[in-house]
Every structure is written in C-alpha cells, then in structure tokens.
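Researcher: Please predict.
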Amino acid sequence: MPKSWVNLAESLGADLHLELTGPGGRRAALLRALRDAVRSGRLAPGTRLPPYRSLAADLGIARNTVADAYAELVAEGWLTARQGSGTRVAHRAEPPAPDRAPAHRAPTARPAHNLLQGRPDASAFPRTAWLAAARRALTAAPHDAFGPGDPRGRPELRRALTDYLARTRGVRTDPDRIVICSGFAHALRLLFPAVLPGPLAVEAYGLAFHRRLLATAGVPTLPLTVDEHGADTRELARLDGARAVLLTPAHQFPTGVPLHADRRATAINWARENGGYVLEDDYDGEFRYDRRPVGALQGLDPEHVLHLGSVSKSLSPALRLGWMVLPARLVDAVLAAKGEREAWAGVTDQLTLAEFLTHGSYDRHIRRMRQRYRRRRDRLVEAVRGHAPHLRVTGIAAGLHAVLQLPDGATGADEQAALRAARWQGLALDGLTDHRHPDATQPPRHGLVVGYATPTDSGFPSALEALCRALPPAP
C-alpha cells in the first residue's frame, strides 16, 4: 500500500495529500509526489510547505530524506527556502495554462456599465451598521439559537418583521404565520407544486426567471393582460383551472404601474369565491418617490393573500433572506415542504436582520437609499429628455428601474436594434420583450428597461452618458 500523508491542522504548512508510489525508494517517491503536486497546480506558487521534521514524522521516514528532497527541489527551482519564511513553492514553477476554448467560442466581453433591473448598488451595503447589528445580535442571542432550529425561522426575526410590515406596508399577521426563506424564488419553489396546485395566473409582463422556475416544477402559467391600470384581474374569471394568481400590485414589473383599486378588489373577490389565493410579490415595496406608498394587498384579506418579500433590493441579494406571510391554513403545508434542517437561511443573518430592524438601522438605510435612487432617477429622466425627447420614460414613481418606451409604431426589430446599440456602448440592460409571456395575446410593447440602481455613485454618470449615446434617434 502506498504511503500517504494529510497535513495536520497544527502544522505550519498548508494542507496537502501526498502519495509515495513508484520505484526508487522513499526519497525518489517524495520528489515525484512534490513535483506532481506543483506541476498540477495543487500546490500553488507561494504555498508554504510543512517543516521537514513534521513531514518526516507524519510520513514515517527519515528527516534527512525529507531535508534532502527539499534541498534538491530548491536547487531545481521548484521550491524556495529563506530563513524565517520556511520552504515555499517557487513562483516560477506555475502550472501550464489550461487549454483554451475552441476558436469558435470566443469569450464575451464584460459590459462596462450594468443597467440591468432589480439590482441594488452593492457598494452601498451598510457594512458598519450591519457589523454593529451582528455584534449586538450575537451577544444577546440565546444558546439555543445555535442548535436545531424552527423551520419557520428565528422568532426574533419573525417578531421584528411582524412589527415592521404592519407599520410600513399595512400587513396584518403574527409571528407564527411568517416563514423565513431564502428569497422570492425559494418561496415559489416551496409553494409549487407541493402546497398550491397549478396552473398559476401571472401578469403578461413579468420576470422570465420566475416563469422558467415554475415551468421546471411542472406548473403552467396563464397570462393576464397588463395595461395602464396593472394586471386585468377581471380575466381571472375566464381562466380555466387557475386557483392562484401572482401579482406585483404595488409596482407592476416591469411596467411600473400600481394595481388599480378596482382590480385589487376583483382579485380578492375571485380568491374568496373560488377558494383560491393571491401571491403578492412586494419586490421593491420600500422605494416610493412621487406618490404615497401603496398598502400591501395582504391587508385586505390575510386569509387569501400570501405576502412575499425579501431584502434583495433593499439591502443585498447576497444575504439570501426573504419571508412569506401566510394564511393560517397554509403554514403547516409550507413547513412540511421546507423540511427539517434543509434549505434554511443562516441563523446569524436572521438574528442580525432582526436587530437591524428593531434598532432602526433598516429604516435609516432605506431613507438614505431612497434619496440616492431618487436623485439617480431624476438624472436619468433629465438626460433622456435632453437626448431623446421622443422616448417616453414611464414607471418612475417607484422602484429601481425605468422603462424607456419606443415611439408608437416601433417593432421588435427596433427594440433589438436599440439593445445592440446599447451593447456596442458597453451597456447591459433588458428590453420589454424579454419580460413578455410567450403566450400573451395582447399587442407587444417595445422599449428599454433601465435599472439605475446598480452602478456606484462614481460610475453612474459615465453609464448615463453611454446610455444617451445608445438611444435611438427620432423616427
């Protein structure tokens, strides 16, 4: 059996595994193993090797054997040895570059400016306040927070969300009806098809990623017409088999209009009469600029509306924290779908968010970002009016994106031409057609969906200049 060694944690070198095999004795086998590890890249340049005494003891071979092997590899240029720095892999002994991709698969250049919708300014994450909240939360956390938990999520966070959502969104619930998840997509995976049956009614314009997720789960989606009043919920009565509808009532995605009060009532009445449910995607409920906040649809009927939210837009999608405010009769079914100790959000992030909410840090961050994003929106509107007054900027009363509508009579080809011009300027953004349901029957709209939140404050002016250069001329 070949002699092998895995470096112990207390060793001064990096963890590694060596197989001493082949002819020539232990010294030759050790030389081959170390050369192979460096050549293959398993031992990267600069990696510190364990002292020869430690390696010899772990391998069960003589110290001089290891010392001689180290010295020979130093002489050959594989390793370096300096007093006080130990023995390390030489930087000139880098492994060969991997084979390049075939010539017909040329790498795609990374856009210089990211104006994709739905992404906050990552540089604005409140690191100092979040760290302070984490320290307070971990100091105060009970011991059981670090043991087997509740699939609902930490009670501290559920209590904090109960108060926050009631105060800011008009949500009516209690902590036992809130289930913490890893974001909106995770909520959909938990709900369909284990808890709610398909098909699902959706808005004719919406996030294609959500439709693909549902399709993968075997859940058909049936589109509802979207106009200047939001989704036409009157069409629910004509949809065959749908027992649930997914809406973005506060700020229709991507068109940006709020759901009209009559259509809100129609959706609620449909759910009551059919024993169905309304899924409320409150994806950017915190960001309102030119109008009063639109209250959550859930407040009208907590037993027929599922309120789904997350911190992906307000803080960061990297946190992977969201919530489901559920009708009481669905809680057990969702917990069963979630399972025990599977697909749970991290406890430390839950505790930190709870502290962030209760301490007022979240409110302060939202107010600061609301002002920042509003200034960006205003600069975007002013720039488009100055460079392309024939384009109508819509959906700007709230949220993190705007729609630049192409003139009446524009076609899909015109939209694609505008997107190509944007890519030529190094811009990443979407077209309205990207968000249209493939089975939608209403006439298509054409335009550009511009996310103005993603660039840093220093990078936004150049992104705006590039966008203006890409805008189509007047017909």
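Model: The CA atoms of residues 214 and 220 lie 7 Å apart.
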